[in-house]
Input
Amino acid sequence: RHTVWHPFTQHALEPEPVRVSRAKGAWLERHDNRRVLDAISSWWVITHGHRYAPIVEAVHTQIDRLDQVIFAGCTHEPAERLADKLIDVAPRGLAHVFFSDSGSTSVEVALKMALGYWRNIGTPRTRIAALEHGYHGDTIGTMSAGARGVFNAAYEPFLFDVVRIPFPHAGREQITLDALDAACREEPIAALIAEPLIAGAGGMLIYNADTLAEMKRICERHGALFIADEVMTGWGRTGTVFACNQAKITPDILCVAKGLTGGSLPLAATLATERIFDAHYSGDRARTFFHSSSFTANPVCCAAALANLEVWENEPVLKRIGALANLQASQIATFESDERFENPRCLGTITAIDLKVADAGYLASAALALRTHFLAHDVLLRPLGNTIYVMPPYCTTAGDLALAYEAIRSAPDALTQK
Ligand code: PLP
Output
């Protein structure tokens, strides 16, 4: 039993996983033919919808041509064309693209690029600053940058120290900015890593674009690099292609993954400015950027990403996102006066709300009970503790959303009746 060991799953406590056999648009089809609304875009990856036709077609075409090739010493058209398109669509000033396979690896690459930069220019800086409540992945480096808690307690001795900058909650932005400035003055910071505008796995906590812009300015003033982790926020989630667009900033290093292929296949990219690349460009082999993985820039994944970028070019994706954002905003607004919940919030296509809970013990079990309740209503939602969020694919209709929010509205009573 449990031959398959699932991620973030306590097999001793959780029910059997949902067996999914097909998917189309915003819907998953279970083995028993029951349909489930994918209201979390299958862990925030699906953007246009499952099996989006142009992407599926590109995958078929590419796999018939070139399936995989080593990317050290070889190259191919899908990767080259994709890199050019990524530079075009990303905030202006990013000039080089390093491919990897997941959000975590894109962040590991970003941290290594930053540390390599300082070492290679001859003034080593090794201190990383990170935003409170951050989540950047589950590898040792990304866990180090992310918030500490029950999820990584076992690995604590192996995590490196970072300077933790308080989260810029509404009304407390200046505390964040002052803390960042003070940290930079105290000892040189190699890089600040942050999720722009919203801390995702840390509880869907939103902050404003002015603060993001000011954080970048403070980094610039002190020569610290700014790493934007747009693994979740990228590809339209926050209403613009990238969250950084709303603050009109270009990070020194940008991490993208998840929706890069429309969510169809695993691919990630770390984009860097000229000076980061230049610091590694040398007659001295020791300055090489020493990072690789077997499937770096897999041609089929690159073809899927290219097709995704062409969808962005050819279809009114931002308009669709705007329409979904409006639907989402009006749905979450109906919870404003619902005493059973608090902090309804919305950023682009993402909404979140906190279920009021009596005690911490209840909090621990609420997420699982909620998931079961939502599934009984044919909606896939995966609360973070008592924070319920909806992050659907962009093809989700008003009717689909109504189903999700009805399931949320009925959740507190269903749970207390248990
Ligand atoms: N960074 C952020 C902001 C994320 O939300 C995630 C995943 O949710 C990651 C990094 C890690 O991405 P992956 O799960 O693809 O490794």
About this structure: Residues 72 and 292 are 8 Å apart (CA to CA). The chain has a mean pLDDT of 96.
